[in-house]
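Final report, Chapter 2: Outcomes

The project's central promise was a pipeline that accepts a single protein chain and returns its three-dimensional structure in a standardized token representation, suitable for archiving and comparison. That pipeline is now operational. To close this chapter, we reproduce one record exactly as it appears in the project archive, with the input sequence first and the structure output second.
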Amino acid sequence: MKSFIVTGASASGKTTLINEAMKNGYTHLPTHTTRTPREGEIEGIHNVYMDLSTFKLNFERGIYFEHSMAYAEKNGVYYGTPYNWIRYLKKDNYCATPVTPLIANIIYRYTEVIWISLVCDEEIRKRRLISRGISKEEIEARLNTIKEQRNLPAEVMIFDTTHLSVSEIFEKIKEINDG
């Protein structure tokens, strides 16, 4: 199966789609982050969790696509997209969630991946964020991440998780691979 990347605003369903892909034989390429794991997340599978000093050291070594520490920071947490993803995403059966559409666009240009963008009704996103037990301030900040999802290339496949289940979306990915 052809590799794919997923973008979307916070709580649009990216992690749920990645979990479905892993159940179906895909290997997830984890983002590096300074945030703490959510319930059920596994180190090295869902993300690579690290303290800020380790993240800064990796950044100084130039292993991330992010061009500045300010760009890597989202809502008080740092995220890094490793350059080595390109090598893996050129192969089959890998999936990843680039931190921003800008980075996804770079990856897309250098690989033959399928690019999936997930959208979702704001009220549903808000309920999903509340269920994570995060602060009201973080919820509001994450609700604003939708602005980053505009102006995507025409080739990006957009799915609305308000109306489609993750299993339905994954079936469409399999259809693309078969077609």
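Archive annotation: The chain is about 40% helix and 20% strand.
This record, like all others produced under the grant, will remain available to the consortium after the project formally closes.
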